[in-house]
Amino acid sequence: MGRRRTEARQITRRIAVYSDFKDKIVDKDLAMQVEETDKFYLLKAIDGRRLWVHQVWKSTYLSSRTVVGVDPVQEALDQTDFEANHKTAAEEDPPTNEMTRDGKLYTQATPAPIGATTYFTSVGDDPANPSVVGGGQQTMIDHQVGGGDVVVDVRFNMAANKTYLHSGYLTWASSVQDTVSLHVVASGSTTAALAGTNYTTLSFPGHPWDGKLITPAAPGAGDIDVITPVLVGFYQSETKANNPVPRYWNATWNPVTQVYDGLVAAPAGDGEFNMFTTEMLLLCFAREIILEGTNYSPWMFNSSNSQRLGDGMFIRLTPRTTGVDHAWRCMSTLVLHREKTL
Prior knowledge:
The chain starts with 10 loop residues before the first strand and ends with a strand. The protein is built from four helices and 22 strands. It is mainly beta. The strands form six sheets. Strands 5, 8, 9, 10, 19, 20, 21 and 22 form an eight-stranded antiparallel sheet that branches. It has a four-stranded mixed sheet with strand order 1-4-3-2. It has a four-stranded antiparallel sheet with strand order 12-13-18-15, with no helix packed on it. A hairpin with a 3-residue loop joins strand 2 (33-36) and strand 3 (40-47). The protein is globular and about 75 Å long.
């Protein structure tokens, strides 16, 4: 007689009181994880086959409505405690695979980060309105005889909308071994030489950033003035690995004014942003891709990676016409992962 196999199943247990959930974390030395929505934080902790969960409602959501059985005063206290003492660690802790109802590990083969949606687009965002998705520059090269090779800069609003570059598609027409390249570029700030400021540039001998990376100077010891600062986000790695790029500035995005407030120096290089005196090429996604003839069947740049783009970065399409000048076109569709698609 054969042995009966018992499937391991994960059992979800909801803990109603925030302090009880924290006690469970401490008593069993569990790792807290969090999923965030515009309404609440869903706190989770995996304990063997058990999944402990607790929901902390956000004050911004409860301020305009009533949720049955929810005390808005207590929820506000819980939210304050979570955000001050546990949110950062919960966000950094890697998600642990959960189980399906029949006891199998639940996995999803996708490079899209948690909370991001795959987004296909042939147009950037409108940089004049940082809250808008779409409405910007088309991702198309349209070369005309005598017009020269003109780069196309495509910008996305990423201050309040995490955006990752994943892959893309190309179609083209009337090409004669012309080429197209795609780079990720950092915007430059407007600066002027001036003594006695709080800004200087860092010496990076042999590095493309040499003399172009704006760093804090001792008060009054700087040699340039930053007239129009443009912050470029170099965010901490999505994993726990250290980020090797020094980052010399911090600021806070203001969703009301839609600008960064409170520029603060991070002289140790542990901030979130950099500033440059000029535009800087940061990443080459496609270099001198040769196009021949006409092809309206999308040609895919496949990738298993997803590279986060920092605010202040943009995508540049660079054409190069070969041989006798002639009209040709190249149309591209970018595949991004974004938190907001509308």
